[in-house]
């Protein structure tokens, strides 16, 4: 069906639940791949706090790494027993690949998405650059509206893509883009709603590894396998008082902030998936 009549995602897409429930479909599709007895969620106390903050109208942003296309489904499955409402209402910042590839679209249709073109793909192909930039501007306006409404939880991967294997075969947590983090910080300030920022580490790579190199064309090969997966939540980040930001100019502060958040995500990544030397 996607090949004949592609589903077109608006800048802000609400998960399709009727007449067919694509959210549950995504869960059911991915469920058999997860080895639940070896999987874990760390930091459920922080998740409880997040739920309380959202309930009183505050916003929450989860800065996390990204490893597989079905990360949203994995998050919802691991939190389904303890925090099902949170995962059904969570909003994911999604790149073009999961909203354009026919194999990924049915899973994406079940999620709440802010559909954006990442820096890696905004200039490909060149003739679509202007159109993609205009689309991203519409997404930013919608994001400001959501923050102003309040009570939102948004997951974003500031790396703009998935973690991949290095030349030596170890998994590298992709660096976080300072501009991406700064964008969310500024939108949060403009909304005049309290916004809370948390780091989230995902260990989901082995379930559906991406290619070792970035492919700009759609149609990458998928090699799914059964594997344990892990989510690690950590304490709230005080965005204005991060160590090392004192007495340095604003542009440098952005880099320090991004590196600080990335370090938390990397340090929480469970062995043996990554070599600490990397």
Task: Note the topology.
Elements: E1 12-13, H1 22-30, E2 40-42, H2 44-55, E3 59-64, H3 71-78, H4 84-89, E4 91-94, H5 97-100, H6 105-108, E5 112-115, H7 129-149, E6 153-156, E7 164-165, E8 171-172, H8 178-191, E9 195-203, E10 230-233, H9 250-267
Parallel strand pairs: 2-10, 3-6, 3-9, 4-5, 4-6
Antiparallel strand pairs: 1-5, 7-8, 9-10
Helix pairs in contact: 1-3, 7-8, 8-9
Question: What would your notes on this structure say?
Answer:
- Residues 274-278 have low confidence and may be disordered.
- The protein is α/β, with parallel strands linked by helices and 278 residues long.
- It has nine helices and ten strands.
The quaternary organization reads as single chain
Give the DSSP E fraction (strand runs of 2 or more residues).
5-15%
Radius of gyration: 18 Å
Which spans have pLDDT < 50 for at least 5 consecutive residues?
Answer: 274-278
Strand order of the largest sheet: 1-5-4-6-3-9-10-2
The count of DSSP E runs of length 2 or more, i.e. the number of strands, is 10
The shape is: globular
Distance between termini?
43 Å
What average pLDDT do the residues reach?
92
Order of helices and strands: EHEHEHHEHHEHEEEHEEH
Number of helices: 9
Please give the largest β-sheet.
8 strands, mixed
The chain-level structural class is alpha/beta
Helix content: 25-40%
Key structural traits:
278 residues; alpha/beta; 9 helices; disordered C terminus
How would you briefly describe this protein structure?
It is built from 9 helices and 10 strands. With 278 residues, it is an alpha/beta fold. Strands 1-5-4-6-3-9-10-2 form an 8-stranded mixed sheet, with helices on both faces.
């Amino acid at each position: 069906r996607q090949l004949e009549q592609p589903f077109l995602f608006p800048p802000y897409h609400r998960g399709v639940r009727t007449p067919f429930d694509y959210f549950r479909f995504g869960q059911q599709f991915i469920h058999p791949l997860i080895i639940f007895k070896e999987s874990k969620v760390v930091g459920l106390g922080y998740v409880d706090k997040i739920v309380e903050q959202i309930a009183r109208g505050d916003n929450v942003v989860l800065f996390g790494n990204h490893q597989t296309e079905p990360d949203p489904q994995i998050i919802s499955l691991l939190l389904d027993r303890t925090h099902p409402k949170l995962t059904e209402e969570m909003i994911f910042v999604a790149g073009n690949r999961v909203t354009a590839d026919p194999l990924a679209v049915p899973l994406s249709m079940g999620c709440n998405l802010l559909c954006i073109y990442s820096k890696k793909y905004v200039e490909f192909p060149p003739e679509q650059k202007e159109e993609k930039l205009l689309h991203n501007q519409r997404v930013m306006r919608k994001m400001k509206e959501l923050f102003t409404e309040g009570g939102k939880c948004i997951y974003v991967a500031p790396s703009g893509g998935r973690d991949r294997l290095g030349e030596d075969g170890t998994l590298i947590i992709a660096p976080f883009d300072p501009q991406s983090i700064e964008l969310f910080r500024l939108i949060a300030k403009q909304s005049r709603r309290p916004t809370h920022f948390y780091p989230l580490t995902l260990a989901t790579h082995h379930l559906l590894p991406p290619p070792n190199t970035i492919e700009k064309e759609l149609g990458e090969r998928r090699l799914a396998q059964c594997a344990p997966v892990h989510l690690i939540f950590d304490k709230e980040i005080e965005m204005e008082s991060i160590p090392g930001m004192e007495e340095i100019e604003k542009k440098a502060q952005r880099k320090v902030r991004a590196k600080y958040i990335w370090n938390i995500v990397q340090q929480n990544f469970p062995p043996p998936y990554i070599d600490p030397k990397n």
